[in-house]
Amino acid sequence: MKKYFKIIILVVIGLIFIGTFVFLFQKSKPKETRYNVSKVEIDTLVQTTVATGKIEPRDEVEIKPQISGIIAEVYKEAGQTVKKGEIIAKVKVIPELGQLNSAESRVRLAEMNGRQAETDLERMEKLYKGKLVSSEEYEKTLLAAKQAREELQAAKDNLEIVKEGITKNSASFSSTLIRSTIDGLILDVPIKVGNSVIMSNTFNDGTTIATVADMSDLIFRGNVDETEVGRIHEGIPVKITLGALQNMQFDAVLEYISPKSVENNGANQFEIKAAIKVPSDVTIRSGYSANAEMELQRADNVLCVPESALEFNGDSTFVYVLTDSVPTQTFERRPITTGISNGIKIEVKKGLKKDELVRGLKQED
Question: Which residues in 93-103 are b (16+ Cβ under 10 Å) and which e?
């Protein structure tokens, strides 16, 4: 019995030894490294750049008063459409005391001169009817009376303007009624009833009553880096995407590139403008942030490989071409000449043929 027991123990020890040996042998064997491969394909590559900016109307006008005073009425609000000449607000004039006193004094003086001129005219008419004075003297007196009447009316009109900013005879040309200068949409009305406003002058831009814009003619305004501005030109197509309408893309045409750069965060950039084509059923608001994608280079129907397949050594570029896959993958290192890239694929001008397989990234275990 003991003899059989010893034999079993020896067999178990032998199996453990053999198993350990096989395990260590398998672990010591070098593993085969396999790579993903990509086919050399014919494709069209487009190299683009993206400019950031915003959408704004081409024509945006700030409506300012032609007279200083206080807002008496506001007839329009932001979001409403307005026609050229339509009234937006009304200004009530607050007369300046010095001007008011001067205007009242002018009226009193004109009334006195007018009464005297009328008295002289009545006296001259009696003498003229009695043929005691010449027609020339009568006509001079009549002219003086007419001038006195005109001066009195002018003085009264001036007093009305100082008090009200308008005369009864020129109500249709009132400077107290603030009118739109263009057809468009009111973007902003920053004033309220009771606000003081001043007219534009040499020392002040004046108070903005409203901002009106033609929202049917929109442009993209953004900036392009100096490293890319030399590869774009007026007239090229632009694709516009908006932060507020992410699922939509709008066609545009580049129409302006600034001849002078501006510094932005240490980089020299050039302002660009592109005219946007907006469908009639889409509403775009002024100030939307936007990206403009522009084509820098294009290569149609060219051989291309993934950029991840490239290897660089100095000024040379190489790829590894699959020559055999059985029993293991075998690759040939081959120099190539490249062209443009779209960031994912790159053009191969020389060194490869269509449908050849090139080595990519290592496969994960």
Answer: bebeeeeeeeb
How far is Cα 325 from Cα 65, in angstroms, rounded to an integer? 83
Q: Estimate to the nearest angstrom the gap between the alpha carbon of 221 and the chain centroid.
A: 4
Phi, psi of 327 (to 5 degrees): -80, -20
Work out the pLDDT band at 95, boundaries 50, 70, 90: low
What architecture does CATH give domain 35-46+300-362? Answer: Beta Barrel (2.40)
Output phi, psi for 234, to 5 deg.
Answer: -60, 140
Residue at 24: amino acid letter: L
Cβ atoms of 341 and 310 closer than 8 Å: no
Query: Average of pLDDT values for 108-113?
Result: 84
Angle at 52 between CA 62 and CA 276, to 5 degrees: 60
Q: Is the peptide bond before 279 cis (omega within 30 degrees of 0)?
A: no
Can you name the residues that pair with 56 across neighbouring β-strands?
Answer: 219
Residue 192 to residues 29, 165, 268: CA-CA distances in angstroms? 86, 20, 42
> How far, in Å, CA of 160 to CA of 99, rounded?
11
Closest CA relative to residue 175, chosen from 65, 61, 64: 65
Query: Which residue ranges make up each domain of the chain?
Result: 35-46+300-362, 49-57+214-296, 60-93+172-213, 97-164
60-93+172-213 folds as: OB fold (Dihydrolipoamide Acetyltransferase, E2P) (2.40.50)
Residue that has been written with the tokens 């308008």 in this structure: 166
Residue with tokens 């929202």: 215
Give the C-alpha separation, 128 to 134, whole Å: 7
φ, ψ for residue 278, nearest 5 deg: -110, 125
Termini Cα distance of the chain: 51
Do residues 308 and 361 lie in contact, with contact meaning Cβ atoms separated by under 8 Å?
yes
Q: Tell whether pTM > 0.85.
A: no
217-252: pLDDT as tens digits? 999 999 999 988 888 999 999 999 998 887 889 999
Query: CATH number of 49-57+214-296: 3.40.50.2300, 3.40.1160.10, 3.40.50.300, 2.40.30.170?
Result: 2.40.30.170
